[in-house]
């Protein structure tokens, strides 16, 4: 990965300087730099220059909404303690069996969670989007990493070592509660996937995964959209089947008028019917 560093110009505009990589590639965002600069100038570190404060506001705000962290003290604590890094696509963020304890908050991008077999084959477990927190289990249990987490796209992450993140949870109840809710959701998610693998056909699992990946399509009534449209290889990997089965299932839904394709999305025309089909498969 390439390393990029930023300083602040007189008008608080980030100015990029390319340097030779010196380790894991990272990008320190203007918010963190502004805190450091404010401290060195004996200014209030909670009052950021307008230009710097705007750089990642949208990404941070989205993350806080996803995590349901409404209070300013918790938000300021997470921002001030973050080491923000940029990971290139297909770069390993967390390596299976490693002993580090960093916790990550995904600000931008997407990542996949896999198990690696002895032969190096990837077994798909989950996918993370902006607003996801991961890596917390190593901090909470003190055990090695159980999965591999790989950047699917370019990912911007707020990184915290285990000691720092534990201190944040002890200091800010909303952060600790958010992590507890996160773990509960993942238990439910894992339980549902275990049920689907044992009780549903491969076709039914494709139906269920399309519904899970979809979001309301706005003005299109009850329809839902999967955006961006996944490749058949990705869809098959998610439900532990073959590319041919995934492709055959999607083609059949299209012939039945239950799915429409475009270059960028899959539209699920009747999600309620698709849900009933998944359950009965």
Measured between the Cα atoms of the first and last residue, the distance is: 45 Å
Instruction: Give the helix proportion (percent range).
Output: 40-55%
Strand content: 15-25%
Q: Quickly count the helices.
A: 11
Poorly predicted runs are 1-55
Radius of gyration, taken over Cα atoms and rounded to an integer in Å: 21 Å
Task: Tell the overall outline.
Answer: globular
Q: What would you say this structure looks like, in words?
A:
With 281 residues, the protein is of the alpha+beta class. The protein is 44% helix and 21% strand. The protein is built from eleven helices and 14 strands. It has helices at 30-40, 50-54, 57-67, 72-81, 136-141, 162-171, 173-199, 202-213, 232-239, 243-255, 271-280, and strands at residues 4-8, 14-18, 83-87, 92-94, 103-108, 111-116, 122-128, 133-134, 148-151, 155-160, 215-216, 224-226, 259-261, 266-268. The strands form four sheets. Strands 3-10-5-8 form a four-stranded antiparallel sheet. The protein has a four-stranded antiparallel sheet with strand order 4-9-6-7. A four-stranded antiparallel sheet has the order 11-12-14-13. A hairpin with a 4-residue loop joins strand 13 (259-261) and strand 14. Helix 6 (162-171) crosses helix 7 and helix 8 packs across helix 9 (232-239). The longest helix has 27 residues, at 173-199. The N and C termini lie far apart (45 Å).
